[in-house]
Amino acid sequence: MNGAITFSIIKPNAVRTGKAGPILAMINEAGFEVIAMKMVRMTLEQAESFYEVHKGKSFFDSLVEFMSSGPVFVMILRHENAVEEFRKLIGATDPAKAEPGTIRKLFAISVQMNAVHGSDSDENAQRESDFFFTTSERY
Ligand code: IDP
Ligand code: MG
Q1: Residues tagged active-site
Q2: Which of 7, 51, 57, 59 gets mutated to test ligand 1 (max ligand atoms within 8 A of its CB)?
Q3: pTM (2 decimals)?
């Protein structure tokens, strides 16, 4: 059975340019329920740990530097088939390849600064949610 939660980050470029509100509105309109949310600025070490699956890739150092460059919104979202539905809403990693009307198509500035993160599996949705939120921070 497909899971009911996914984990998302509104990335530093989007927060910095005042796009968190419009992105949250799109998430809300698409029927996702926010069950946990906070604004955090990751340390370099936290970003390295969060993205450890990408360690060794060419873009890793630049990615973790970017992700710790300013505050982000982290959140847990509830929806039927949440991981897959949210990936559809955000669009492809590369905004040039993202479908029209997706969050990344609308708000990304580059492959790296692609405005939002969305978990790629139920297992990672759990891991990423646990990375940022205790049980009492979820509603
Ligand atoms: P995803 O966010 O769509 O799941 P991943 O392949 O998991 O994409 O990559 C994680 C993040 O790393 C991307 O969202 C993007 O910010 C960055 N990234 C991925 N591939 C590249 C690249 O080729 N150049 C620069 N940054 C990249
Ligand atoms: Mg990914």
Answers
A1: 117
A2: 59
A3: 0.97
